């Protein structure tokens, strides 16, 4: 006998803040009356930390010391054992999004080594012959907007062979001069990162200029920290040998879920950086790095 179980939230965008109520319905659709042994609904918020393969041997104790960090957990019985009539049945539910003690609800974040996720799970127990049904649904938590005003300070940069730090063969590098600015490195998540870059001159033709957004995740325990940087997105802002002296706009929208306000706790850190990457035709790669501080207002 076919039966479908689903969780429908009242908010279409599934975004909630601490202190609000997560409300919705459990939807059951079956052709004929259905016997069950109880329906329960649970809400859980977890931070999952993982080590990159290069750090595994270094921090053996890490696996024992850092279990998933539970931010919120609650469980309710939606219906006692009984029968559900044939057709479509909707059971409303409400969960207050509040933590116990002094725990903080961090913003939903899908990273590589740090994952912050909030889930609703509905379980329907059935008799031995019929399989138990379960359904999960993720909802998104946004952190409370910060009260302090964000001070946007522009950052100017100049890139020449002399300003490069990790260059082993500076004498063989072609001559070039690139100027530019970012309108701010203290960024509001809901607003784009903007600025401009100008190629003043270059001995070698330019292949492309790209803007790379990077997440820097630090996981740790008493015996040390593992810090890993991975790319979130890469957008090309110029293709080919661009006109010299022409301002090229920088415009990057921050992606949802893969980014969150800059976060620092005792067990983990989530930070963000942006790289302005210039590739020359002789395959030289020139990168200028800017740490970003993200917040929600």
From TrEMBL:
<dbReference type="InterPro" id="IPR028934">
    <property type="entry name" value="Vps26-related"/>
</dbReference>
<dbReference type="GO" id="GO:0005768">
    <property type="term" value="C:endosome"/>
</dbReference>
<comment type="similarity">
    <text>Belongs to the VPS26 family.</text>
</comment>
<dbReference type="GO" id="GO:0006886">
    <property type="term" value="P:intracellular protein transport"/>
</dbReference>
<protein>
    <recommendedName>
        <fullName>Vacuolar protein sorting-associated protein 26C</fullName>
    </recommendedName>
</protein>
<dbReference type="InterPro" id="IPR014752">
    <property type="entry name" value="Arrestin-like_C"/>
</dbReference>
<keyword id="KW-0967">Endosome</keyword>
<dbReference type="InterPro" id="IPR014756">
    <property type="entry name" value="Ig_E-set"/>
</dbReference>
<comment type="function">
    <text>Component of the commander complex that is essential for endosomal recycling of transmembrane cargos; the commander complex is composed of the CCC subcomplex and the retriever subcomplex. Component of the retriever complex, which is a heterotrimeric complex related to retromer cargo-selective complex (CSC) and essential for retromer-independent retrieval and recycling of numerous cargos such as integrin alpha-5/beta-1 (ITGA5:ITGB1). The recruitment of the retriever complex to the endosomal membrane involves CCC and WASH complexes.</text>
</comment>
<comment type="subunit">
    <text>Component of the commander complex that is essential for endosomal recycling of transmembrane cargos; the commander complex is composed of the CCC subcomplex and the retriever subcomplex. Component of the heterotrimeric retriever complex consisting of VPS26C, VPS29 and VPS35L; within the complex interacts with VPS35L. Interacts with SNX17 (via C-terminus); the interaction is direct and associates SNX17 with the retriever complex. Interacts with SNX31; the interaction is direct.</text>
</comment>
<dbReference type="Pfam" id="PF03643">
    <property type="entry name" value="Vps26"/>
</dbReference>
<dbReference type="GO" id="GO:0007399">
    <property type="term" value="P:nervous system development"/>
</dbReference>
């Amino acid at each position: 006998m076919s039966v479908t179980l689903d969780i429908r939230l009242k908010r279409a965008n599934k975004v909630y803040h601490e202190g609000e109520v997560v409300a919705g319905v459990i939807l059951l659709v079956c052709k004929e009356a259905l016997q069950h042994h109880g329906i329960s609904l649970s809400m859980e918020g977890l931070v999952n930390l993982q080590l990159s393969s290069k750090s595994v041997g270094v921090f053996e104790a890490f696996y024992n010391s850092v279990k998933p960090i539970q931010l919120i957990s609650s469980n309710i019985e939606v219906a006692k054992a009984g029968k559900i009539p044939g057709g479509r049945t909707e059971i409303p539910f409400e969960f207050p999004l509040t933590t116990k003690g002094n725990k903080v609800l961090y913003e939903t974040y899908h990273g590589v080594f740090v994952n912050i996720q909030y889930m609703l799970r509905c379980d329907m127990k059935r008799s031995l012959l019929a399989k138990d049904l379960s359904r999960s649904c993720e909802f998104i938590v946004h952190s409370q907007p910060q009260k302090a005003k964000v001070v946007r300070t522009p950052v100017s940069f100049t890139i020449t062979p002399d300003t490069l730090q990790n260059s082993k063969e500076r004498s063989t590098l072609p001559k070039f001069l690139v100027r530019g600015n970012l309108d701010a490195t203290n960024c509001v998540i809901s607003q784009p990162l903007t600025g401009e870059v100008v190629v003043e001159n270059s001995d070698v033709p330019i292949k492309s200029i790209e803007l790379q957004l990077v997440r820097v995740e630090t996981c740790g325990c008493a015996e040390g920290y593992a810090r890993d940087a991975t790319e979130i997105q890469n957008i090309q802002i110029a293709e080919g040998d661009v006109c010299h002296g022409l301002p090229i706009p920088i415009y990057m929208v921050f992606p949802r879920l893969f980014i969150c306000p800059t976060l620092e706790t005792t067990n983990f850190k989530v930070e963000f950086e942006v790289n302005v990457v210039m590739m020359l035709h002789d395959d030289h790669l020139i990168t200028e790095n800017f740490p970003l501080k993200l917040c929600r207002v």
